[in-house]
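ugh ok fine here u go
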Amino acid sequence: MYTAKNILLPLAAVALFIILVGILTSNLQQTARHFRIRKLTPDKPKVLVRDIPVYVDIAKTPREWSLGLSGRESMNMNEGMLFIFDKKERPRFWMKDMLFPIDIIWIVDGAIIQIEQNVKHPEKDTPLNELEIYQPFVPVEYVLEVNAGFVKKYQIAVRDPVDLTEVKK
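structure:
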């Protein structure tokens, strides 16, 4: 025989179960959000372009300069690669084996002196002799490669300061 007690007790148990599942799901979502945020600020050195942090991989040997970002599929918006040179020079860059477009920021004496925006990656089978070469107008100490659109998003401009304290030579 069905009574109010026989019906209400299972309904209360189901309601309690649904509430507990909701609480656990909410906590899991918060934890996942925490890890996603943490992933966006990796444990890498950072440079400040004006006041915008960019977490960088560093290239300071000829082999590292040659490889650059080639072969990578993507980067987070506030990540990049910083090329460090022993002395001021006019390095030549190309997009060999690049899979995504970038902005190139040329730096000397702690300031931006030139910017190349939205440098496209080449078609897969582009011959080496047909790859475009990018080079600063004057000798530089550093080159920062970031995702295409970074310069526009943050309105970065020539003469903006770049704080390289964490990555000095």
